[in-house]
């Protein structure tokens, strides 16, 4: 049973743990005790086999010969399959085709699965998979974004959004700057690697335990590769050990391979990836090449902009079309671009297909405008914060380059509050004085905003279902289409249901997400888990309540408006009953105590042909102020302090939301500073584990980290209890660290020069930026 703090909410006449209050994560005690079950912790079914795949060692090649005799002969091997053994569909592309479940003749990245093995042990399967003899005809490989751009080599057509006449605005602007930035990718590095367990059923169907953010997609694709109707496959997700987008589409491949092997052998099959295999075989955050051409006046007010964002998509479309599109949507961040053109390219490379990652292209898009704003400030010798504030969306300057009107102006006041609470102006003066006196150590400071659109940009995904059951003892059971990956979605939905009936949250149980309870679910992604599933659960509750109110009014002889639910009781006129007692009476009087619920996000639309529309229901906002210190001799640095003010509307659970903000900021900081994906000239990933790929550690967290929620800021849209999404937006708060690092280097030239700084801003890149600043100073001195 969940243990909840008994706080002042009991004395104030409220049920404990309902929406709006802080409550423990539903699996918190299981996590800390090591009792929370993930795929690899489930009891092993009798006769369980283990899967592995043999994969390509070439980035782009044609297979001329495949000899699997040694694989089949290895002790413990029960079955070996190739694409020829797939009874149904062979392409498992989530939106567009291009992702073969197993390669046939053509391979297009190192790590692409060619065949699959089922063996009596995990070790035997992996060792056997290495024994294949594969002969290749090597083909030319394109491995980077710039080469793909030069050759117009794309996985999907390019797209343009335009507002006004940017060419004329740029030509007439008093000042004009151009720049570019290479924004690095990022490995998801979830604690639980990709995993699935497939069990054949007595009716010829398949049951799949999957570590997936999208169980309905796994269900559909498993059914398709097996040649079955969807109803013959069920999938279940109790929890994931992290997802971050990496398990939105790419978990399906493991479910399909495990199911194919289970179908061939008639035995349950588990397929889990080791960390190196996971990093080689699955996609990352897209790295981007971004450019800008921007015109502005003497005050730094942007008058025209030409922006390009180009994502390295890998060998297949996956979700890249939507990811590059979201980068385009967010290339303004929080700034009004009256005359602007934004172009997006989905570049094909012979590398693993990149995929969703927290922020879904938005962070990469924001980087280009944040670089431009910093460059404008240095060019005019203004404080970057002043340039940012002047360009923020505000009434009268509130239409985006894709035609959506900003209806709730949060950022100007939010930024002003953080500027004051972080003592930005005082610290700016202190840091400038410090840098003038310190020849080696330089400090930097930056305050950057975040405006992030909330909704799936694919309209049909903005829907959710839920199932709410009330039992005769007053306990409640909830099932919904969202998945739990550690972010606290289950506890939030439990709190929503508890609030609907005004009962303690420990009376509510949320069970594993299953496709045979709530069908056709959307992925838990796009920061929409609470918005969609919370509203669906609330809809189910309201349907049940309507029946309960009608019963109470009739049974106790009062008007329906005199029936209310409060503090674990039901009041009907003069009658006051304990919740469980009332539920028992309703049951005895044959009142329905269960209902399904449904929600579809209103208002959203987008016309791809015109590049205009209203793709987001609302925007989430926040800002971060970060201070760093840089050693200009080595390029090493530390983050000293970060202040964050973030808007989550009327928070469903302040403790969970603050945790999400802290985690999102640190993950964003890691993306921009320490997490570097390194590939060989042949396209082979060289950073395949924690020894070579550095996620931020506890020691990298700012020793002074101050996180606050913006008070009194309910969502003006009718979201669940007027809350706002909190999953992805905080990641982009990490941009403040990158901007502060540039600020530290700019101090070498009295803030007159903005050095190029690709990400991640490793010490090596920081040292290169320092050297570039010194070279600039030398050129300036010679010219004068």
From TrEMBL:
Pfam family, one: MoCoBD_1
Keyword set, alphabetical order: Molybdenum, Oxidoreductase
Ranges where the Aldehyde oxidase/xanthine dehydrogenase a/b hammerhead domain occurs: 33-140
Matches recorded under InterPro entries: Ald_Oxase/Xan_DH_a/b (IPR000674), Ald_Oxase/Xan_DH_a/b_sf (IPR036856), Ald_Oxase/xanthine_DH-like (IPR016208), AldOxase/xan_DH_MoCoBD1 (IPR008274), AldOxase/xan_DH_MoCoBD2 (IPR046867), AldOxase/xan_DH_Mopterin-bd_sf (IPR037165), Xanthine_DH_Mopterin-bd_su (IPR014309)
Family: Belongs to the xanthine dehydrogenase family.
Name this protein carries in UniProt: Xanthine dehydrogenase molybdopterin binding subunit
Gene name per UniProt: xdhB
